[in-house]
Design a protein that fits this description.
heterodimer; A: 282 residues; alpha+beta; Translation Initiation Factor IF3; 4-stranded mixed β-sheet; 3-stranded antiparallel β-sheet; B: alpha+beta; 5-stranded antiparallel β-sheet; 7 helices; 10 strands
Amino acid sequence: MSGPADAPAGRDLAAEVRRAIAFLEHPPTRGLEPTSDLTIDEELIVHSIGWEPVELVSGLSMVSIPWSATLWSWGQGAITPASSAYEMAFGAAIARIHAQAAEAGGHGVVGVTVERAVHASSVDITLTGTAVRPIGAPAVPPDGIFVSDLSARDFALLTIAGWRPLALVQGASFVYAPRRSVGAVIQQRTQNVELTNYTEAMYNARETAMERMQSMALAVNASGVVEVKVAEGPMPFASHAVAFSAWGTAVRRSDTPGRRIDPAIVVSLDDPTLLFDAANLE
Amino acid sequence: MSDPLSDLPEAVGRRFAEGGFSSGLSVPDFGACIEMGLEPLGFVQGFCAMQWGWFGSQGMRGSMGYPMAQAGGGYSEVFQCPHGMRGSAHRSWGQNFQQTQVEAFWTEGFTSARSRMMDEAIALGAHGIVGVLDTVNEISDLQISEFHLRGTAVRVRDAAPSALVPWTTFLAGQRLAKVFEAGFVPVAVVSAVSSVRVWGYCMTEYLIHGGAGASWLGTDEPQEIEQFVVARMAARDIVRRKARGQLDGDELHGVELDVTEWEVTDDDWEVRCRLRGNRLRRFKDFDPLPAPRPTVRLS
């Protein structure tokens, strides 16, 4: 039986499916049993650059924040115990996912999801991703194992462009929101005025988080960090404190030459569906 | 072979006898299946309502005030207080242990529902079931959970009837087509559950409830809450091993890992992991794929 009339020449998907189903009569031949949370699209992309998934891996940590009973209520400047706990939790989680990838024979971990939670008395960090390696490569990578939150697609694009991920890097900063005196509040009540101490404190905290992330990247000889994510905001248990955190993938040019990403322009012929909105008639 | 419908409600037989086909596939997925030569035969499903029976046996903290012996070789680890004798309220020991009864509950519920779904597919003469969905619903507050699996039974056009049990996959449509084109054939949906109970000891209790920094703990630096970290890692390792145990040399793709934690009573938690994925078997090597060509869409 042939495929549909408009199928490309030589491609008979139905015949391929029949061949595949018949193969179920045979036992598996490879026996490597890889596990992966990549979609089939992502696996095809990873495979197109000569890599394959090896194992679903994870790393996590939960670290206590010292003096949390009084830490969040009042203060000025940086909240160092919280920053230290955050850094320790992130570092331990990275170390564990790194160890699992090494045990599985992976050369790196891609598509790492970063789950972060800051509680009043502890910090939770959980990392989950898929260990990958060049197809048929030896278990021990020559350049060390990388951990990256880049998606499989972005990992492939980065590799094609001649760059390689080195490490998941992060920085965090916790700071007290500065308070004004009662007199200042009354005096400024009817004015449009910049709260300079507030601006400076928040500004400094953001820069500190970014600086810590960049320092971590430089420590692994990276040229820079891509896909930087920034999260910030007050915490429900501490109305006068703000948390800033930044994380991303440290990258460096690889030894193999890359090629310029030269995207082709496509125009979709699909009409966007326009929803009828009765409000337009008013 | 015995009648596959013998264990199923009478209405199933009547539905199948009416003729025509029903399908849970979306229209694009339906079209892709037709292109693959997979003919939908019918919407198939399986149910299993299970009552939780584990609270009485493993719900209480230890036995006679001592850590519980773990039966059946499951994971268990005891954490001893480093402070010596203190008051009676002091949690002088803690324990992490694998709740094998919870896992058995899940396994039985899932496999029974899956088996009934497959019985329906066998009755239709299907080769496989695509687009499988699985849900677990809590029925009121009676500690009853209902497992429900459903999917669309398909027959491979122009293929001989097979004596094998139908293959199953969470995938359908274009994603399933890509699986075949990538050189894989679906074997079965894989689901595994792990459950680790955490009976906190003094250090876990103090660190979680904000005691870190107290002088008698010996340090005012941040500390890793070891018992919890160990429990979470153990739960993930157990569920991965359980999933691997279902592979028999095949591969597991598209894994979803759901982790839930809840506090059963004071300083008593459960970490539960559920892993789902598609067991696939390679039937040919990857065709050499060209490097992907980046595009920019003008819309």
